[in-house]
Hints:
Layout: E1 3-7, H1 12-23, E2 27-34, H2 41-52, E3 57-62, H3 85-88, H4 100-115, E4 119-121, H5 137-150, H6 152-155, E5 162-164, H7 172-181, H8 206-217
Parallel strand pairs: 1-2, 1-4, 2-3, 4-5
Amino acid sequence: MKRAVVLLSGGLDSTTTLAIAQQNGFEACALSFSYGQRHEAELTAAQRVVAKFNVRNHVIATIDLRVFGGSALTSDIDVPKGRSPERMSADIPVTYVPARNTIFLSFALAWAEVLGAADIFIGVNALDYSGYPDCRPEYISAFERMARLATKAAVEGRHTVSIHTPLITLTKAQIIKRGADLGVDYSLTCTCYDPSTNGEACGECDACLLRLKGFAENNIHDPAPYRRSGATV
């Protein structure tokens, strides 16, 4: 069984990506980050997910992006709430963490080389997302080209790195349908940008609204806990 590094935040997209990696026959080595985010609920969710999926190798890397700030997730900036899909896609919101996927993929690349793995999975999405520049196909392609120049394994001709983005062209509804077909238990996941201290989702941030919309379009109840009973779109 080939190994693959799977970036796992504990959210809906990364958990679905983990399920897809395993379905494709990879031994998934999960990589999560404690990067100074405003809450630890997603890391708790990631630990629930790896236990459910029987992932034997899970690393939580600690870095501190609060030293730079610049995002509602790493500094004292209010998380936007109640925005329409049109407004979400109009500009890059303050929940964007500068260069986060570049940093995360660089760590994944380093660990993959140590593991002897040629595959990295990341749950980026270019449709139902909030305009993040590091979720676009052209960005992933550029990073993959760089990765093939940057590692000892590639220079020595042992293998080249492939970045897998199985969700990149799917809507949130399609992602949820794919995960449901794979038996993903979405009650384990945490997608919210501003959850309560006990992990309840706010139901109003961009991430919650996109998630709720995706479940509604599938006529499936979102099993995640919300602060507001019966949160809906």
